[in-house]
Predict the 3D structure of the following.
Amino acid sequence: MTVRACLIGLLSLFVLAFAIPAWGQDGATISVQQPWARASILASRPAAAYVTILNKDDRPATLVALETSVAGRAEVHCTVKQGDAMKMVPVGPIEVPAGGSVRMQPGRLHVMLMDLERPIEVGQTFTLTLHFANASPIAVSVPVLEPGARGPEDD
Ligand SMILES: [Cu+2]
């Protein structure tokens, strides 16, 4: 599976039932939902975080950078199959289509948190800021779940 296929598989259109363009409100039509992260086992190992980005605008939204105080570096990775092995490759910028969404999930698209100062522990929350081209940054509070968690509904 190529990186492109990985990304295309994650794009889905949703029904614009209540999509009223908020002209002049920069970034108001982009929302970040269901943030969560997996605890890291050691500070020397990266941790993974997941979000769903909804774009109700009639223009694509492009995620260009990520920022958090708990990691020296945060970037979007895609997990791809290479032969029999699973490999993670950095991807980005991530384009969220007009009227569409991008959903991150374990084994596919994720935010990799690298250069941790200390392990990310179950029960803690941290702030993740998403930077978009042509829209205001969005900061979300990310709860940390068990290392093997599949998502916020998993508890
Ligand atoms: Cu990764």
